[in-house]
């Protein structure tokens, strides 16, 4: 298991993350078992990281990371498995429209929106100066990254009962961030490729993403089964749900209205 070798510094955020150096030589943003939002934050992050990898979505590589005893500077009593995501250096946290336009993968903004709807991520659409769940890696080929998946499954305090209750509760969140993406992804079928990626996942893929979770994180076998059923059930509704936001996309809406277009 990947281990912390050096503590660097605390970072801002609701989950009180920390920057660390690990045994593979890379820096990670680590969220602790004792984070203020609860252990399910770690579960949500790990599941999303594994799903994103299978779908080729822009989420920093996520790992289970162990903090051994004796690492100077680490918060006390934190030995055990935590979640860490690969640190994106020189990231732009408050990108302008020009920064977004320069991203080599800006078309994946459609993937981001659909992914959030599928897993009921209820806060990425919000865009304020002190809260945004994306980052742009700078350099000659800037890239858009999705960060902070803590609020998937409608928040970090889910259990089997809440998942069952939310399974048929679909909401197409819309806000400033998604609106900023529109000029870059609008077209006759802006979500066609994103939907194809989503539907390419098998039930075994979903089980794999929900099963590789440390026992210390308290996810039961029943939780895993309910999670997989939840993800599979909601995925089947995404073609219809995504069409409810068509009015925010001028080109898509015009094509659909006047040319009989479909998603």
Secondary structure topology:
Elements: E1 2-10, E2 18-22, E3 27-31, H1 40-55, E4 62-67, E5 80-86, E6 91-92, H2 97-102, H3 109-118, E7 134-137, E8 143-146, H4 160-166, H5 176-185, H6 192-200, H7 203-211, H8 221-235, H9 238-243, H10 250-259
Parallel strand pairs: 1-4
Antiparallel strand pairs: 1-2, 2-3, 3-5, 4-5, 6-7, 7-8
Helix pairs in contact: 1-7, 3-6, 4-8, 7-8
Structure description:
Helix content is 37%, strand content 16%. It is an alpha+beta fold and 263 residues long. The strands form two sheets. The protein has a five-stranded mixed beta barrel. A three-stranded antiparallel beta sheet has the order 6-7-8. A hairpin with a 4-residue loop joins strand 2 (18-22) and strand 3 (27-31). The mean pLDDT is 92.
Strand content: 15-25%
Distance between the termini: 43 Å
- Please report the number of helical segments: 10
Strand elements, count: 8
Helices and strands: which structural class? alpha+beta
The pLDDT mean sits at: 92
Helix content: 25-40%
Oligomer, anyone? single chain
Largest sheet: 5 strands, mixed, barrel
Low-confidence stretches: none
Assign an overall shape: globular
What does the radius of gyration come to?
A: 19 Å
Domain HipA-like kinase: 13-228
InterPro entries: HipA_2
Protein name: HipA-like kinase domain-containing protein
Pfam families: HipA_2
What's the quick description here?
By secondary structure, this protein is an alpha+beta fold.
Key features?
single chain, alpha+beta, five-stranded mixed barrel, 16% strand, globular
């Amino acid at each position: 298991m990947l281990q912390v070798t050096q503590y660097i510094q605390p970072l801002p955020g609701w989950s009180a993350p920390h920057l660390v150096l690990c045994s593979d030589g890379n820096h990670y943003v680590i969220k602790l078992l004792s984070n203020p939002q609860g252990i399910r934050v770690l579960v949500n992050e790990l599941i999303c990281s594994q799903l994103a990898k299978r779908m080729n979505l822009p989420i920093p590589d996520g790992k289970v990371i162990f903090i051994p005893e004796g690492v100077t500077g680490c918060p006390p009593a934190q030995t055990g498995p935590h979640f860490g995501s690969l640190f994106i250096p020189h990231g732009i946290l408050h990108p302008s429209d020009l920064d977004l336009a320069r991203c080599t993968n800006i078309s994946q903004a459609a993937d981001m929106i659909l992914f959030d709807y599928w897993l009921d991520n209820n806060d990425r659409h919000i865009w304020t100066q002190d809260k945004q769940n994306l980052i742009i890696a700078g350099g000659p080929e800037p890239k858009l990254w999705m960060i902070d998946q803590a609020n998937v499954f409608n928040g970090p305090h889910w259990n089997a009962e809440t998942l069952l209750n939310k399974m048929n509760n679909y909401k197409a969140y819309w806000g400033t961030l998604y609106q900023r993406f529109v000029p870059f992804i609008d077209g006759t079928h802006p979500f066609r490729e994103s939907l194809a990626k989503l539907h390419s996942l098998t039930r075994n893929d979903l089980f794999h993403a929900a099963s590789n979770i440390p026992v210390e994180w308290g996810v039961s076998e029943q939780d895993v089964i309910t999670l997989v059923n939840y993800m599979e059930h909601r995925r089947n509704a995404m073609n219809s749900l995504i069409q409810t936001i068509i009015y925010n996309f001028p080109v898509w809406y015009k094509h659909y209205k006047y040319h009989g277009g479909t998603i």
